[in-house]
Amino acid sequence: QELKHKYEATEIGPYITIQETRNTNNESLPVLGININKDFMPTAANMEGISLSNYKVMEKGMFVFSGMQTGRDVCIRTGMYKGDGKILVSPAYTTYIVDESVILPGYFDLYFRRKEMDRLGAFYSDSSVRANLDWPRFMQIRIPIPPLSIQEAIVNLYNCANEAKKIAEEEDNAIAKAFTMYIGDLLIRNGIKPIIIIIVSVCLPIISQIGDLIFSMIKRNYDVKDYGTNSIESCDYPDYAYLMGKDIVSKNIDFGIGICGSGIGISIALNKMNGVYCAKVNNIEEALHTRLDN
Questions:
Q1: Helix H or strand E encompassing 163
Q2: What is the pLDDT of residue 201?
Q3: Rounded to an integer, what distance in angstroms lies between the CA atom of residue 22 and that of residue 41?
Q4: Are the C-beta atoms of residues 13 and 142 closer than 8 Å to each other?
Q5: Which of 120, 77, 75 is nearest to 95 (CA)?
Q6: What local confidence, expressed as pLDDT, does residue 32 receive?
């Protein structure tokens, strides 16, 4: 916000140059696309028998743009390729570079990762069913362009914060694995069969809290089994819900606790199974009502 007040917003168009190099030699290079998180990922398209000669070649520091469905997804699909080596992207993408004498690529990429820019892109998108953002309209977007030294400082601060977050997540993951091994050893040494409580820790960076929950259950003499995921990586949580639900239906366990980001998705997944009844609860009173009234 301070940047917007201190530095006048300027159209990005004059500082952008389309740079499209076709793969005329039909080199066998990785084919990537860009997702709504503005990260590059392997294409989901079936490339068998497809000629790559018309695909566009990208190198580190170049940008890609797709205006498709910007309004529908509330996302401007544009991002900077940060990997080493060359890659290929679909001919449907626009590939470009920025004038580094005015805008640092890292600053440009960072600024367009802001949700505010996605909302602006959705507002600028056309009125078609797909709500696309045309390239000329994209070029008219204005952003504050501070001096290069300020841009560099912003990028460095962001990278430091991101690296700190990554280290913290890795440490949490390592602690989770160690804790899970400890719990398993503790159960075996005490002759406890894990048949009553199932903790489904789904796709969340709250490993330590889940560990505390498991430990408190054991202290209260509950038998515990943790079906995972024991990781903060993204996953398909219905797979883990199914494992727990199957044991509930088979009466191998008395009840379970399912955890996801909001509690809604895991509840829906469990309630789709015949013989399983799951309620999302936010407090002790709601939990009591599920047992007494519902």
A1: helix 148-189
A2: 44
A3: 20
A4: no
A5: 77
A6: 93
pLDDT in tens, 169-178: 666 666 555 5
Which DSSP state fits 13? G
Close Cβ partners of 235 (under 8 Å, ≥ 6 residues apart): 202, 203, 229
Q: How do residues 70-92 score in pLDDT, each as one tens digit?
A: 998 899 999 999 999 999 999 99
If you search the block for the tokens 């490339």, which residue do you land on? 47
Tokens of residue 257, six digits: 């606790």
Place of tokens 């709250």: 206
Neighbours of 131 (CB within 10 A): 19
Assigned token pair, 185: 């050893």
Lay out the sheet containing 56-58: strands in order across: 21-22, 56-58, 87-89
Higher pLDDT, residue 249 or 233: 249
pTM: 0.58
Q: Give dist(CA 112, CA 140) in Å, integer.
A: 14
**Are the beta carbons of 275 and 248 closer than 8 angstroms?**
yes
Q: Report the alpha-carbon distance of residue 52 to residue 190 in Å, rounded.
A: 60
Return all residues near 216 (Cβ < 8 A) that are at least 6 apart: none
User: Is the pLDDT assigned to residue 234 strictly greater than 80?
Assistant: no
35-39, 66-70, 216-220: segment of lowest average pLDDT: 216-220
Give, in order, the Cα–Cα distances in Å from 237 to each of 4, 99, 193, 240: 40, 44, 25, 5
